Amino acid sequence: MRIDKALKSKLPNVDMENLSFGTVFSDHMFVCKYQNGSWLDPKIIPYQSISFDPSTSVFHYGQAVFEGMKAYKDVKNKIWLFRPNENFNRINKSSERLQIPKFPEEFFFNGLHELLKIDAEWIQPGVGNSLYIRPFVFASQAGVQASPSLEYTFFIICCPVKSYYGGEVNLLIEEDFSRAAEGGVGFAKTAGNYAAQFYPTALAQKKGYQQIIWTDAKSHNYLEESGTMNIFFKINDKLITAPTNDRILDGITRKSVIQIANDLGIDVEIRPVKVSEIIEAAENKSLKEVFGSGTAVVVSSIKSFGYRGKNYKLPKVDNPLAANLKEKITAIQYNLIDDPYGWRHAVV
Ligand SMILES: *Cc1c(COP(=O)(O)O)cnc(C)c1O
């Protein structure tokens, strides 16, 4: 693989203490092109702007998918990834649904490893600090014919992030708009899924909510996801989350939460979650916790949620499960404890 090193690092000019998520990028990026039926010439080059013809397919038809993952440094400055095979498999699953050619595993891991090694200084040690990694692929052929592109470009870019406190999260259970339909692309990490969420989310924000809890598109009777996270409900001692399907994204954090909760001896039910049972549980005080799961924050506790004009506040609990799960997953990510699952992946 070709590696063109940046002449000068931008790192000394970056204020690592005041990073706004996703706005500062490391010195290098990985690029690979698909042409004439194959992925060719993977390379690492200095992070830079790219230029495309105005007719480029992705601008018109949105054939684009992405991933989100993180690299962590332990106390010995060793770099780790968390279940990266899952991200690799998922980007190809997302790609398949959008008729994008699969990306080769060797290119993905070589590219990722070399990129992290060359930009290693961008990963700050210390729990909470990490390098957010954004692999993405899009239709890069010029021309407005409404058919799958014959050319694609795969990138990996990285940005340093600090842990952040999400604040008091207040969510709205949405019944008018839908995120995903049966047979659709909800399970895939497509750019378009996010575009379609911005408008309903902006309306919810005007009403004082940070995010939406999406219900199923057909009946709006079941709770599916929260913004861009999977969602969990703790009723008394039971932890409940919806099963993944073609509307729900198969989150890696979700899987990890389920595994760890099971191993803590918690009763985890993976089944459709009715809006009515959650409202009832909130009213009779058996609803103890609600939290989202995703790579960016690991686990994010919800303080309250709105439904049909009424607001439901969650109780303050001692030793919340959300915090316990977050701590366990974080300890594995930062190589602070043994990893009985084989989730930690060394970057060498
Ligand atoms: C990325 C994403 C998640 C979380 O997945 P992780 O693998 O845990 O980061 C959940 N829901 C949606 C819609 C997502 O795009």
Structure characterization notes:
This protein is of the alpha+beta class and 348 residues long. Strand 18 and strand 19 form a beta hairpin. Strands 9, 10, 11, 12, 13, 14, 15, 16, 17, 18 and 19 form an eleven-stranded mixed beta sheet that branches. The longest helix has 16 residues, at 191-206. It contains seven helices and 20 strands. The protein binds pyridoxal-5'-phosphate (PLP). Pyridoxal-5'-phosphate binds next to strand 12, helix 5 and strand 16.
Question: Key terms for this structure?
Answer:
single chain, 348 residues, 7 helices, binds pyridoxal-5'-phosphate
First CA to last CA: what distance?
16 Å
Hey, roughly how much beta strand do the residues contain?
25-35%
The percent range for helix content is 10-25%
Query: Could you give the count of β-strands?
Result: 20
The residue-averaged pLDDT reads 96
The parts where pLDDT drops under 50 for at least 5 residues are none
Ions, cofactors and other ligands present here are: pyridoxal-5'-phosphate
Largest sheet: 11 strands, mixed
